[in-house]
Sequence to fold (382 residues):
Amino acid sequence: MSHVTLQGLVESRSEGDTLAITWLFVVLFSPQLVIGPFAGVLADRLERRTVVVTCYAGAAVTAAALAALTLATDTPSLWAIYLLALVLGTTFSFVGPSAGALVVNSVRPEDVPSAISMQAAVQNMTRVAGPILAAAIIASGRFEYGFGGFAVTAAVAAVMMSRVRVGAHETVDDQLGVFTRMVVGLRHARARRPAALAITTVAVASMFGVAHTALIPSFTSEVLGQDRGRFGLIVAATGVGAIVGALTVGYARSEASLTRGATALALYGMCLAGFALSPSLAVAVSWQVAVGFFYFATMTTLQTLVQQVVLDEMRGRVMSLFGIAWGGLVWIGTLVLGLAADDRGLGLGEKSTLLLTASVLIVFGTLVAISGRRMPTGSTYD
Fold:
């Protein structure tokens, strides 16, 4: 609801300017690159539940401010939208490592893969319901409903999380400074080579995969010839595939491995190429279901692998690196893709840009899948 409604608002306010939507992704995801390492240290040093509750409350307040802004004026300034989006992105940056680590602290070790998959599946249910509701809101121009709905659900989430009981996570009173702890977390990830390569793969998937979302509104109008507001249907289709992908990984008997994750990434690139060549909205929606399936199969497999090979006292810091790879680099990818597609940049157009980025995913995923055969799986890592 929050991200799609923001996309719709900027798209409407800028009259479909591709770069304006690209800058929205920059302000939403760039805080992850700076804040991520600090968020990881917080997740390892503070009570993770407290961090999550505080961030959800902050997201609720920010969404309420966006609702008030759009209710007060029909033409809110882009700088005001970007500013509130920056605050919202900041709260998301802090919550990621603690929320991811908290799931692991809530279950037995043998249930970690299923717990991570369940978390991914539930998150992606919102990627179905949210865009469908947001599509109707965007069409009506009443963006305050979208932001108001998200404010309410974020507040409810804060209350619910405050009542969750989990065991204390392992901590080491090492008396180190914040930056030293960041370095220790980075060294731990590098020492656990499957984790380091998994995080690198996530970074490539984000820059050349997640980033393509910024082109969907203009692709819908310029290539498919549809009303811009209908891009929400494509985003919802991605969510449908994502749910199936997350659950498939959760119930799969095979263990999380780098080869499985990288293979899914290569297939994701193939589906993205199919999407770029879609002749109609119906075909594009079908391809996006497959895109969502393989993307979140990739992410869930790699996240499970990382969670299994790291020590618990390092989990928050390593997961912050995972978060940086996922969200902290998305804005760079969106900026590059936006400039590549827009006439004020390289002028390649949406279709050619998507085909180019799909090729990168296919090649990289194939190479990592081959090299990953020599890597241990998550549960067998020593």
